[in-house]
Structures are given as structure tokens and as C-alpha cells.
Design brief:
By secondary structure, the chain is mostly helical. The protein has helices at residues 14-47, 52-65, 69-79, 89-114, 119-126, 131-161, 173-184, 187-214, 217-246, 252-267. The protein is elongated.
């Protein structure tokens, strides 16, 4: 006995699937922006000197990374209202996804910062930048480039994890698929189509994010340039030092002038 598939019966339900897909895309975009923002801030906190705030942030990271996402979602949806914090299913779903991605991206970005050569901090000081400016303009760009593929993968994982929010009756793609299945009883067809949509969405998202990195080809050159700055400045310093020695300049005032000229020349690069 052969079983026939009835994909044609799903055509009337395409608007529901597309509406659920659009909600999933919105959730993913907002959660990615919010989660990465929290992750970069948390990585800066965790990479600095140990403080009470960095320890609290470390506790948040460990709590989120070692508990299931569905438990976090249920705590926000059913637990926070007992504390007087009431929100809609969509707000709770978005908050849960942002908090989850924020914890994971904190550790990913922190790993990229930790492998950054110390010479880049020195390059920032030579250029007259503050510590915050050095972090934003010198340390963070190459760190993000190193861990960019890992961040892309984590964002896709969060997008796929958005299917869990259907458990709190938020009408995203999986919720729409469950609703259609309950009406048509076409389980195989419905979930096969849903699987294909998630697969296409994951591949498209990965390609778009990676294409955005490739289009910034000058970013790689700028990063390499920043990494070479300390070596270039040292070579220039040694060159000027040799010239002044050959000229017999060794009194304090002349040496002060020498340092001024060397720093001024370095800042022009």
C-alpha cells in the first residue's frame, strides 16, 4: 500500500506560513542587534580589570550558558509576572532571545579580544587615543574579524531556537506550522515544508552576513596596518635615534626635541 503526499492542499495556507516566516525574521534581526550589542559591552567588561560588576556579568553568562533556552523563556513568560513585570508573548520571546545571545556573544567576542596582541594597545597610546578610543577603534575591529564566523553561527543558532517561542503561543513560523498541521492533519507535508523554509533561511542568513564581511575588503588591510603600527613606529624611533647619535646630539633639550619630532611623525601615519 502506497501513501500519497498532498502538498497541493497546503497552498491555501501559504499566507499563514509567510506571516510566521516574517515574524521569525523580525525576531531574528532584533535579537541579533540587541544580543550583539550586549555581547560587545559584556566582552569589554569581562576583558578589563576584575571588578564586582565583571563578576556579576560572569555569573549572568554562566547562568544563561548552562540552562536550557526553553527554561529561560518560561521563566520570563511565567515567572517575571509574579514580580510585577508583565509583557506580551512577543516581548517575552524577544527578551529571551536577546538575553541568550548576549551571554554567548560575550564569550565569543571576549575570546577575540584576548588573542589581540598587546602591541595594538601601545599603538593606540602612540596615536594619542584614550583607552576607550583604543578599544573601539583599534582593538575591537580586528577582534570582531577574527570571531566573525563564530558570531554568524551563533546568530543562526538563535534564529533556529526561535522555534521554541511557539510554546508560549507566539505566532512565528513553527507556531504557524503546528496550527496548519492541526487543521489539515498533513504532518509530513507541513513539517517537511517548514524544514525547507528554515534551511533556506539559515543558508540565506549565513550568505548575507558573510557577504557583508567580504565586501569590506579594505577592513582586512586596515586591520593588518594597525597590527604593524608598533613595529613601524619602533623602526622610525630607532632610525631617528641613530641619526641623532651620528650628529652627536645628546643633551636633554635636544633629546626632548627628538622625542617630539618622532611622536609627531608617527601620528602622521
Amino acid at each position: 500500500m502506497t501513501e500519497q503526499l498532498h502538498f497541493s492542499q497546503l497552498w491555501p495556507h501559504c499566507p499563514e506560513l509567510l506571516a510566521g516566516l516574517w515574524v521569525t525574521i523580525q525576531l531574528t534581526v532584533l535579537a541579533t542587534i540587541g544580543g550583539l550589542t550586549i555581547g560587545i559591552f559584556g566582552a569589554a567588561v569581562r576583558s578589563g580589570r576584575p571588578t564586582w560588576f565583571s563578576r556579576i556579568w560572569g555569573g549572568y553568562v554562566e547562568l544563561i550558558r548552562n540552562t536550557p533556552f526553553v527554561v529561560q523563556l518560561f521563566f520570563i513568560v511565567f515567572g517575571l509576572p509574579n514580580l510585577g513585570l508583565k509583557m506580551t508573548a512577543g516581548e517575552a520571546a524577544l527578551l529571551a532571545m536577546v538575553v541568550n545571545l548576549g551571554a554567548y556573544s560575550t564569550e565569543i567576542v571576549r575570546a577575540g579580544i584576548q588573542v589581540t596582541p598587546k602591541g595594538q594597545w601601545e599603538a593606540g597610546r602612540v596615536l594619542g587615543l584614550t583607552r576607550t578610543q583604543t578599544f573601539i577603534q583599534v582593538i575591537l575591529p580586528p577582534a570582531l574579524q577574527r570571531i566573525y564566523p563564530a558570531l554568524v553561527s551563533q546568530c543562526i543558532i538563535v534564529m533556529l531556537g526561535s522555534s521554541v517561542v511557539s510554546q508560549v503561543s507566539y505566532e512565528e513560523l513553527t507556531f504557524a506550522a503546528n496550527l496548519i498541521q492541526s487543521r489539515t492533519f498533513l504532518s509530513f507535508e507541513v513539517y517537511l515544508v517548514t524544514t525547507g523554509i528554515y534551511l533556506a533561511l539559515s543558508i540565506t542568513m549565513r550568505q548575507l552576513l558573510l557577504a557583508g564581511q567580504r565586501r569590506r575588503g579594505q577592513f582586512t588591510f586596515r586591520t593588518r596596518l594597525i597590527e604593524l603600527r608598533p613595529q613601524l613606529h619602533q623602526r622610525r624611533f630607532n632610525f631617528f635615534n641613530l641619526v641623532f647619535r651620528l650628529l652627536g646630539i645628546d643633551n636633554p633639550q635636544q633629546l626632548i626635541f627628538f622625542h617630539f619630532v618622532a611622536n609627531l611623525y608617527a601620528q602622521r601615519f
